[in-house]
Amino acid sequence: MTVSRETERLNQYAGLMRKWNKAINLVAPSTLDALEERHISDSRKLAELSKATVGDWVDLGSGGGLPGLVLAINQPDRNISLVESDKRKCSFLRNVCREVGLMNVAILNERIEMVEPLSAQNISARALAPLPLLLSYVDRHLASGGRAWLMKGRNWRNEVDEARKDWSFNLTAHRSATDPDSAILEMTDIRHA
Ligand SMILES: C[S@@+](CC[C@H](N)C(=O)[O-])C[C@H]1O[C@@H](n2cnc3c(N)ncnc32)[C@H](O)[C@@H]1O
């Protein structure tokens, strides 16, 4: 059986996560056994959903690289920037890029609020902040006409209601690959109300 380049790279990435997680908390240790099912598969779903879109991508608060590195592996022709304030997590991200041979990733070891606006066509985030705050981060770095892809847990409907008090946007909620009650929120026309 031939293993695809993508699968091979995802396996390498998962192996590095398992190795480094002992030293730095990339994901909760209790979820490490289910790394592929619990963490990587939803990022792969996002990669498939966004495949037809064009333009640079910024992943905010990348941590151990979810979903940013999975996207970079799935879409090697797209430029992807990962913004992460934690120095040790950035060392891990750089190490993965080197070991896996990812040439399409830039790692910005800075705070999202301090990075000069990046004007990206696509922005993603997972487990970073409640939606109202997250939209202020997205607003800083999204190009006009751009699209946000925000991975949200079971409380996503309440977060959307809360965010609508201060923001207007178009929303398509895609069902998560791992939990039917969680969602990948695809948002366009994001404006401060
Ligand atoms: C809970 S982790 C989630 C990481 C990853 N997205 C995931 O789903 O596994 C949130 C990450 O965002 C980073 N972070 C939080 N606030 C940030 C900020 N203002 N600027 C840059 N990174 C930030 C933290 O250091 C942490 O690595």
* Helix/strand order, N-terminal first: HHEHEHEEHEHEE
Could you say how many structural domains there are in total?
1
CATH topology: Rossmann fold
Secondary-structure arrangement, i.e. CATH architecture: 3-Layer(aba) Sandwich
Strand order of the largest sheet: 3-2-1-4-5-7-6
Overall outline: globular
CATH class reads Alpha Beta
Give the CATH superfamily. Answer: Vaccinia Virus protein VP39
> Sheet bearing the most strands, described?
7 strands, mixed
Task: State the end-to-end distance.
Answer: 54 Å
What is the assembly state of the chains in this entry? Answer: single chain
Instruction: Classify the helix fraction into a percent range.
Output: 25-40%
Gyration radius over CA:
16 Å
Main location: cytoplasm
Subcellular location: Cytoplasm
InterPro entries: rRNA_ssu_MeTfrase_G, SAM-dependent_MTases_sf
Binding site for S-adenosyl-L-methionine: 61, 66, 112-113, 126
Describe the structure in your own words.
The termini are far apart. A 7-stranded mixed beta sheet has the order 3-2-1-4-5-7-6, sandwiched between helices. It has 193 residues and is of the alpha/beta class. The longest helix is centred in the N-terminal third of the chain and has 16 residues, at 5-20. It has a single domain (5-192), classed as Vaccinia Virus protein VP39 (Rossmann fold), CATH 3.40.50. 37% of the residues lie in helices and 25% in strands. S-adenosylmethionine (SAM) binds next to loops. Specifically methylates the N7 position of guanine in position 527 of 16S rRNA. Belongs to the methyltransferase superfamily. RNA methyltransferase RsmG family.
